Structures are given as structure tokens and as C-alpha cells.
Amino acid sequence: MDISCIVLAGGKGSRLGHNKAEVIIGGKSLFQRVLCRVSFLKSEVIVVASADGLASWPAGYSSHKVVADIYPDRGPLVGIYTGLTTASSFHSLAVGCDMPFLNRALLSHMIKVAPGFDVVIPRVDDMVEPLHALYSKNCLAPIEDMVERGDLSVHSLLGLVRVRYVDSDEIDRFDPEHLSLFNVNTPDELDRARSLVEQGAVVNDKC
Question: Span 62-73, mean pLDDT?
Fold first, then answer.
């Protein structure tokens, strides 16, 4: 299936004290690791950043589309909206720039089951992961209406479109430890990510 990839890099990294995308784990930045793990898609990559982040974006990544949030400082739903607006494909994979252990097999499975749905999203214990999900352009109009109402909740969007949930037992087939859903927001999570890489705990980790 033709698909674009949206990397959300708009967070300020306030809990880490600096830009998360540039944090180094095992000799590579978080952003480099994410790019490596989605490279198998061989699709366009759209990086959605804040206006401040866009101004200071590293020149080495100029081969990718880097765009600023259409509605600044409004959260991840608007980042997804910005990416979908820019994407050339009908479906897009949206991931956070702070997810170093994205799992190719799980992502491939999510893409495989996407036809007929507007969102394909992991769900663990009734918690969804909106920055590890597929979205179609059919989400654009509902998100526009939500923004006008001041509702920026991904959960609200899921009640307005066709959703395919990928539950824990399904995730377990590809990623039993759910490391693909792990993101780095705090110093403790950064320490854990570095420890996993150092210990070789991530199987077939070429990124």
C-alpha cells in the first residue's frame, strides 16, 4: 500500500531539559533511530516540528519535508493533521521522534490491515498509542471540526472515523515486550533506552 510517514518532532522535551530528537542513544540520535526504523517503507518522510524547531532544524536532514505545525502549540492531534495535509499518500504512518525501538514487523502488520479503515492504532489495557498509528486523509475534515470546537483529543477523533484497534494479544505476535511502543520522555526512560541498547536487548537492532 502506498503510504507516507509522519514523524512528530514538535515536543519541547521539557522533562528531559532539551530537544528529544537530538538525544544520543548508542551513538545515534533518537531521530536517526526513528528514521532508520521506518526506512523499510521507502516512502516520503514528513517531519512536523514547532516553528522554533523548524528554524533550527539540522541541515543534514534537508532531504525530508520539514513543516511547522499549522496550529502552533496545540498538541499531537494538530501535528498529525499537519502531516496528513502535507502527505502525498492517502494513508500515513505517524510516529513520535522519541520512539527508538519501532518494530518493522508490527508496523508492516498494521499497514497490511489498514485498507477499509481511517485509523489503525495499538491499544493496551484500554490505552491507545496515537503516535504509533496509521491515519487516512478521511481524518482531515473531522480534525478541522474538532479544532474549531477546541477539542484536541485523539480519543474524540476515534469516535468519528473507522478504527481498527490492534490489541495486546495481536501486538504480542510481533513484539512481546511492547518495546515498539516505548518512548523517551524522562531521564529515567532515557537511561532505560540506553541500557537496552548497551545490553543488546533489542533483537536485530541495526538502528
Answer: 78
> Which residues have a Cβ under 8 Å from the Cβ of 57 and sit 6 or more positions away?
47, 49, 66
* 124-177: pLDDT as tens digits: 998 999 999 999 999 999 999 999 999 999 999 999 999 999 999 999 999 999
Residue 206 pLDDT level (bands cut at 50, 70, 90): confident
Average pLDDT taken over every residue of the chain = 88
| Nearest-5° Cα angle at 28, 26 to 31 | 130
Strand 127-128 to strand 119-124: parallel, antiparallel, or no bridges (unpaired)? antiparallel
CATH match for 3-198 among 3.30.450.40, 1.25.40.10, 3.90.550.10, 3.30.310.10: 3.90.550.10
Three-class DSSP category at 117: coil
| Helical pair 76-86 and 140-149, crossing angle rounded to 10 deg | 140
Write down the residue that cell numbers 540506553 correspond to: 194
d(CA 156, CA 142): 9
According to DSSP, residue 200 is labeled T
For CA atoms 182, 99, 178, 194, the dihedral sign is negative
Q: Where are the domains of the chain?
A: 3-198
Per-residue confidence (pLDDT) for residue 185, from 0 to 100? 86
